[in-house]
Amino acid sequence: MEQISQPAGQAVGPLSPKISDRQWAASAHLAALVMSLMTSWLAGIAGVVGAGAVYLIKREDSPFATEHAREAINFNLSMFIYACLAVALAVVLVGATVLTLGIGLILTIPAGILLVVAGCGIAIMWLVCSVVAAIKAWNGEPYRYPLTLRLLK
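-> structure tokens emitted (153 positions)
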């Protein structure tokens, strides 16, 4: 963002991003959201592709859109990693049940229920945060997703 110069004694503030930059930034979040919803939440790598397209197009032209696209990529990659970990944990739980010939159900059923609840919580958080990020981008405000691994800097 550019700084505006003002007479001495007055605050200097950043200019609001141009409308086209705000549109590109919001489209990074919405492209990630739409592509992930179209391909299923567990195949969330499509969200990275949607935001990545905006990142590649605007990385030279618009720092505002680039930052939002980078944040969307990192968030969708993080959600994909969390989903993979949940699937791995589910496989371990099923394996423990089979390995103990069903006796392990005493432990794996409550753990499986917690895993389903956690998965639903992550899915709801992903949906809500993506919508909030798109709104913030449209309004010209920065946004940082929670629980995001910052893999792309």
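Residues 110 and 116 are 10 Å apart (CA to CA).
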